[in-house]
Amino acid sequence: MNSTRGEHFRISVFGESHGDGIGVVIDGLPPKQELDLDAIKLELARRAPGQNVNTTSRREADDFVIYSGLFNGKTTGAPLMAFCRNTDTRSHDYEPEFPRPGHADYVAQNKFIESNDYRGGGHFSGRLTAPIVFAGAIAKQLLKVWNIEPKAKIVSIHGESDSSKFDAIIGEARERGDSVGGIINCTAENLLGGWGKPIFHSLESDISAMMFSIPAVKGIEFGDGFGFADKYGSEVSDGMEIDSDGNLAFLANHNGGINGGIANGQQLSFNVVFKPTPTIAIPQKTVNLKTWESVTHSFSGRHDPCIVQRALPVAEAALAIVLAEYILID
To answer: Is residue 109 within 8 Å of residue 289, measured between CB atoms?
Structure first.
């Protein structure tokens, strides 16, 4: 396992979906930072399960306890550790002999010699995005000083971009015992030109690595992304000029605010693709690992028919964590 990332804003997530709880250790926080705990609670509430009929029925309050790194409402400079207890688990839904297609079940059992916690996906569960949201909520508070606010919005669900149809599309998939995926757009303003460390720690590669740490993410594109493939260079030119105030100005932003892996000062913009939840009620072809036979199996459990809506605060948090690294470097 490697569940730690970052050098200056360093986070380590821990726990399993159906274990005692989940949490995060954040190292590198400067001292004397006042933390708005209510703002953290609001971010966790945005991600929390059981919000409506189109999300999982599992209900977790995600009430957190901070055990270290905070004194009299301010950071101490020591590692900050927060813990959320799991309170609504139903482990009997999970059968380790039947790995879910498209899930980490089989590869996790294979890699960790059948010792991994398979209940609810264990450490591979979307439940582990709660500690990421907690850390991201703190990162957002650091970024406010720089007037940087990561934002995420849904671009499409199951190929549909009309938001008024999202609930119906998800509801139909849920009633069928199926699931759907979608695309989220992430943006941030006021990044300093020059952020990014090419070649191997470009801003794009740092963001991409963090985004792919979110379960169900299967693709990312910056600016026009794959749209570049069928365009002429003249159609996607981010022209430049000197404006009336004598400043360099861009005439377009096809590249999403990044050139050569370095922020150019324009709006950062990228899309993230989330696949449909792999655990569905419709029978799927899999194997019985005990009998070593091919089978068709129906999977039970409480799962989102679409993870995209609850992923909005997760994507924002992931971006905030990456950008916090840059402000602490500077």
So the answer is: yes
Q: Is the pLDDT of residue 185 over 70?
A: yes
Q: What mean pLDDT do residues 163-186 have?
A: 96
Q: Can you point out the beta strands (E) in 130-204?
A: 151-157, 182-188
Residues 31, 77 contacting (CB under 8 angstroms) = yes
Write out the E strands in 163-309. Answer: 182-188, 217-222, 240-242, 248-250, 258-259, 262-263, 268-274, 284-288, 293-297
Task: Tell me how far apart the alpha carbons of residues 11 and 6 are, in angstroms, rounded to a whole number.
Answer: 7
For residue 169, give the amino acid letter: I
In this predicted model, what pLDDT tens digit does every residue of 318-328 receive, in sequence order?
999 999 999 98
Cα-based torsion angle of the residue sequence 143, 144, 148, 152 in order, rounded to the nearest 10 degrees? 90
Q: Name the region of 315 (left: φ>0; alpha: ψ -120 to 50; beta: rest).
A: alpha
Concatenating the DSSP letter of every residue in 5-55 gives E-SSSEEEEEE-TTSSEEEEEEE-PPTT-B--HHHHHHHHHHH-S-SSTTS
Sheet holding 217-222, edge to edge: 151-157, 182-188, 268-274, 217-222
Q: What is the pLDDT of residues 22-74, one digit of tens each?
A: 999 999 999 999 999 999 999 999 988 666 666 665 566 778 999 999 999 99
Domain ranges of the chain: 4-329
Amino acid sitting at position 126: G
Report the CATH number of the 4-329 domain.
Answer: 3.60.150.10
